[in-house]
Here is the input.
Amino acid sequence: MTAATKAPPLAFTVPVDSMFGPAIKVGSIVPARGEKPIISNIRFSVNNGVLELEGTDLKAFLRHTIPAATITTPGSGLLAGSRLLEVLKEFRGAEATFVFDPRGGCRLTTTGNTYRLVGDDPRDFPTLARFDADPGFQIKGSVLVDMVNKTEFAAADEQTRYAIGGVNFELKGSRFRLAATDTKRIAVSQQTLQIPLKPDGQPEIADFSVVAPLSFFRLLKRVISKDLMESMVTVGVSGPYLFVRLPNAIVHTLLVAGRFPAYEEGFKAVLSKHIDCTVETFATLLKRAILVEAGKAVFEFSPNLLTLRSEMPTVGASSVSMPTPYTGETTKIGFSPLFIKEALEVMTSERCRLAFDGPKKIATLKEIVVSADVAKGELVSDCFAYAIMPVVIPGEDRSAND
Here is the structure.
């Protein structure tokens, strides 16, 4: 191909403010140094006359459109992500023109300023899948973020058992559920959705149960920024990918291999005792117990009182308590104060219920909400359910309350 017939390089003009936010989001997934240096770049391209920015760490992927850009000539190009953000930050409020070199990099100009920015050959950048026509179900952005917050903290922080190192996405009929576990605790958040039906009465979206890595959810929360919380987003599964389609952006990830453990049994145990309390008061009690020992404490439930006792030889011992409306027999169980505190921190209700039984049985923690039906008063919600295994406390007789 002669120089005269070569395709012109990508060129566009854009208000810097309209690119800055999307560039931060895309740049947040771009590794400064990775196994493949090419992915330290942000890819610029044009699709249907609209400028797109793409970034990936090879596990999660983000494509963001910039409708405000005026395209002079379509094409593609790469820029080093960190350097681009530094330059854009300096020219907020201005308009910038980008002219890319087909061999990599570009010339960026604003009024009285010219930069030559380094970038690699766009042909070496991995091709990101597109999900423009793939079906999915809709959910409000704020609801999805809340569901992620209420589950991801319980996922295992390990690389050997991949399935529990992520969050399980499950759609079954009209029930959408997220779940995470590290085998010592289980966090589940669920919502009932309106799934469109086909003419034959079958749902348009087939049931699925898949696992996605934690990095995807952290990216997702950055992409669903404050201005998108009230927007509807589309969630779907296509081949080996889970995707979330937002206004002007799409984030997707490769699914994690392996089967997520069956967790429903953890919520089927019959628990004969419970305490209801305010989230703030309970969290304060746990915070004080953690000052000595975060991993284990004796929870002593006695009439009208909950006492937490913990001890660590290198620190000392503590005994902290709070009043409760509990009227049952005195029961002692070992739990991790930290694990329960982490669940309380993601709750959006003011009150909660901790249900328990003996020292060998799993306990559950749920939110208490005010019913829309005034006559029903307060209800224990199943939208968020947390199950925690007891721990062995040295010197405690585990059979005493069994």
Q: What stands out?
A: Residues 11-124 form a domain with the DNA Polymerase III; Chain A, domain 2 fold (CATH 3.10.150.10). The mean pLDDT is 89.
